[in-house]
Amino acid sequence: MKDKEMKIRQATIEDLEKLCKVRNNEKLFQEYLEDCDGERAYFLVAEIEEKIVGFGLVYLDITKKGKKKSHMPKLSDLYVAEEYRRNGIATALVKAREALAKQYGHSHIYVSIDPSESAEMVCLAKKLAYEPLQPEPYLVSALYYDHQGQPYEKQYFRLDFKKNLL
Question: How far apart are CA 57 and CA 42, in angstroms?
Answer without folding.
Answer: 6
